[in-house]
Amino acid sequence: MRVLITGAGGLVGRAVSEHCAAREDDVLTYDHRSLDITNVALVTATIDKQLPDVVINCAAWTDVDGCEFDHARSIAVNAQGPENLATASRKVGATLITISTDYVFDGTKKGFYTQRDDPNPKSSYGAAKLAGEQRSQQAFARTVVVRTGFIFGPGGTNFLSTVVERGMRGESMKAISDAWGTPTYAPHLAVRLRELAERDLPGVFHVVNSGDGASFEGFTRAALRAAGCDETKVETVTMESLHRPAPRPANSRLRCLLSEAIGLEPLPNWEDALQEYVASQKRAEMAAQS
Fold first, then answer.
1. 150: left (phi over 0), alpha (psi -120 to 50) or beta
2. Contact, 233 vs 223, CB < 8 A?
3. Which residue in 29, 76, 192, 238 is deepest, having the highest Cβ count within 10 Å?
4. Annotated catalytic residue 103
5. Which residues pair with residue 254 across a beta bridge?
6. 236 with 180: CB under 8 angstroms?
7. pLDDT tens, 105-152?
C-alpha cells in the first residue's frame, strides 16, 4: 500500500509512519515544513505527483488555548487543511483518513460519546476540528474521520506523554481531577488507522483504547505506579482552578459503534497500553545511559 502521511513529525504521525513502514508499505512522510496543508496548490501538486493509495492526515494545530486567540489559523489548519486533502485525494482516487478530536463534544454527557451523539464543541479548537470533519466529508465521499483523544506515546510532548519521564526525574506535577477521557496509546492508534485504510469504509470512527477511561489525575497516578515513581509528587487540581482561556469538556470519553461491526477488535485496555508504554520508556532510558 502506498501511504502518504501528513503531520509526520508529530506523535501520531511518527507512530503511523513507523507502523506502516514495518508492514512494508511504501511510506511517504511530510511534516508541516515540507507540506503545509493550508496551501491548496502545494497539497494538490504533492498528491498529484505521489499518487498514494491512502492519505492519512495527522497534521493539526492542537494548541487548544492558542486556537481560542487565533481562530483564523485554527480554521485554516484544522478545517481548511482536511478539506484541501480531501479534494486532492478525490482527484487521484486515494482514500483519506483524517484525525479529529473528542473535543467536538461539550462534555455534559455522563457516559461514553458514540457516533449517535451530536457534536457540540465549546472551544474554537473543537469547532474548527468539527468543521474539518464536515468539510472533508463533503469534499470527498471516501473520507474516514477518526475521533480520538487523551493520546500518549513515545516522543510525545503533551502532558500524558511526559508524566513517566517527569516522574522518573522526581518532578512535582499538577493533574486535573475533574476532566475525563479515554487514554489512547499512539502505536495502537496507528495500527487501527492502517486497518481502516485497508477496509476503505467511509464514515466516522471513534478510536481509543478500551476500558472505563480516566481523569488526568487517574492516568497520572496509574503511570507513576507503573513506573515505580512517587505519587506524592502529584498535586490534585480542578479545571476551573487553572483559569485556561479555552473551555474543555469535563467528560470526553469515546466509544465506537462501528468498529466491531466491520470485524475490528477493541484496542487493548488503556492500563495495559500504559504498562507497554512504561516498559518502552524504561528501555529508552537504559539505552541512553549505556
1. left
2. no
3. 192
4. no
5. 113
6. no
7. 999 999 999 999 999 999 999 999 999 999 999 999 999 999 999 999
H helix runs in 70-185, sequence order: 71-75, 81-92, 124-139, 159-168
Which among 30, 103, 113, 125 is annotated as catalytic?
125
- Cβ atoms of residues 164 and 227 within 8 Å: yes
> Is residue 196 within 8 Å of 205, Cβ to Cβ?
yes
Give the cell for residue 222: 496509574
Place of cell 509526520: 8
Alpha helices, DSSP H, located in the chain: 11-22, 40-50, 64-69, 71-75, 81-92, 124-139, 159-168, 186-199, 216-227, 239-242, 270-289
User: What does the DSSP 8-state code read for residue 246?
Assistant: S
Distance CA 170, CA 80 (A): 42
What is the longest distance spanned by two Cα atoms in the chain? 56
Instruction: Return mean pLDDT, the chain.
Output: 96
pTM: 0.97
β-bridge partners, 147: 100, 206
Q: How many CB atoms are located within 10 Å of the residue 262 CB?
A: 12
Q: Which three cell numbers stand for residue 38?
A: 493550508
Cell numbers for 216, please give them. Answer: 488526568
